[in-house]
Structure formats: structure tokens, C-alpha cells
Write a structure and sequence with these properties.
Blueprint: E1 2-5, H1 9-13, H2 16-28, E2 32-34, H3 44-48, H4 52-66, E3 71-74, H5 77-90, H6 95-105, E4 108-110, H7 111-117, E5 132-134, H8 138-144, H9 148-156, H10 177-180, H11 182-199, E6 203-206, H12 209-221, E7 228-231, H13 232-236
Parallel strand pairs: 1-2, 1-3, 3-4, 5-6, 6-7
Helix pairs in contact: 5-6, 5-8, 7-9, 11-12
Length: 241
Amino acid sequence: MRVGLFVTCLIDLMRPEIGFSVIKLIEGAGFEVAVPPAQTCCGQPAYNSGDRRLARDLAEKTLREFEQFDYVVVPSGSCGGMIRAHYGDLFGDDPELMNRFGRLRAKVFELTDFLVNVAKVQLQPGRFEGQVTYHDSCSGLRELGVKAQPRELLAQVGVAVTEMQGCEHCCGFGGTFAVKYGDISTAIVDEKCANIAASGAGTVVLGDLGCMLNIEGRLRRNGDSTTRVLHIAQVLAGDVQ
């Protein structure tokens, strides 16, 4: 079966190595992976900023590019949440688009949800060593129900999670929120960084690159040069030591 990988803007532009880890995992589960070369943004920044016309244009583009696949996998809770939870709002006045979106929506999965509930993978223990804590990204948790799936997969590869206080609390990124409300965003991410430190873990793992960049950036600006911030795909694929 063919999987269309919605690679996300941030992974494409900032950390393409995460995309290659995602492909390794999906292909290892027995699926063919295609990455539509013309894909761009899911439309979330425009949608959150009130530019519904641009958001709808991008949503229609995504629909055209991905409706051909058996499944669509998104290694980001925020982009996956935008597609599954908000495209219906953008297409609500067009029955034909709503019908097409309904068919697409049923095939869209966040990466760990796909691996657990569709591919039903049984991963082999890897070489990763060290104590890990996990940050639950807001959109993945609240819009897609991603909570147990990453922890189940980490257990499969032999990685134990030490839960931090407030693991479900926002990291303060929120896309354009971090730009519009910088002081609030900073206070939120400072609390997240303190909780990571208090967990005693040397690595924080998560499933959304926006959160990764925000947390890692604040850790480094606060003088923490040792705590690793990793996408779960990198850990599961064995692409970090």
C-alpha cells in the first residue's frame, strides 16, 4: 500500500534528517512511501492568523496532492491536527470538497498513531542509551489523541520514559503565538525547560518539530548545552546514539 508523506515545512527546511527517519520507519513497516514534490504548507499559520482565503487555497492544494494515496502520514501533531480537525471548517460551504475531504480525512494519521494502529509494528530494541522524558505536543494530544502511542513505541525499542511534571502542558510555541506574544511564550517554555531539568532525563523526545525548536532554542539560550531534544522518529529509527 502507498503512503503519502506530508513532510511538513519545518522538517523540509530545518531538519530534513527527521524526514529520512520517518521514511525508514514506514518502509520498514512494509509500506511504499511517496513524497509529493510540490507539497508546501498545510495552511495552519494562515488559518490561525485569520487569512481563511490563503488557508483554503493551501488546503485544496494538499487535498489534490494527497487524495491519491492509501494513507497519509504526518510526523507532526500540529500539521496533522490542522488537516484532520480544521479543513472541514474551510470546506464547509462546498459539498464536493467536503466529500473529498471526508475520504482523505479517514486516511490521515500522525506518525506514531499510524505505526501503532495501522501498521501495528513490533520494533526491535535499539542502541539508544540514556534517560528520556516525553513532551506531549498540544495538537497531537488534544486534536489527534496521541498519548499512549509514542510511549508504546519507545518501550518497544527499549527506551524507558521518566515522566516530567506537566508533560501535557504547552511548550509556548503555538506557531504565530510565539511571535505575537513573546513574553507569554517565553514564560511558558521556561516552565517546560524547568520541568525537563527536574525530571533528571538527559533527553527530551517529542513528535513535533515546532515544539522541538522552541524547547531546544530556550534550553541553549539558558545555558543548557547538554540536554538533547529529539524527534521520536529519530529515536525509533535508530538514527541517534
